[in-house]
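[recover] target loaded
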């Protein structure tokens, strides 16, 4: 019987991620691969970079928080 060829799982080129900050807010940033892609047996890799968007999610715990505009 012939051996099945394993498929290489490609990584997503761009992801939106969130970072929990000390004050309870969440920062939104992009995580993406750039540059030369390294292809080896059962591995695809590259250089990872981050871009912080200066956008924040602020939890709304009270009515004052919900009406607050910044």
């Amino acid at each position: 019987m012939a051996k099945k060829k394993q498929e290489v799982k490609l990584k997503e080129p761009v992801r939106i991620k969130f970072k929990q900050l000390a004050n309870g807010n969440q920062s939104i940033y992009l995580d993406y691969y750039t540059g030369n892609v390294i292809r080896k047996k059962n591995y695809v890799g590259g250089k990872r970079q981050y871009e912080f968007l200066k956008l924040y999610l602020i939890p709304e715990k009270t009515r004052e928080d919900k009406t607050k505009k910044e």
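[recover] notes: The chain has a mean pLDDT of 79.
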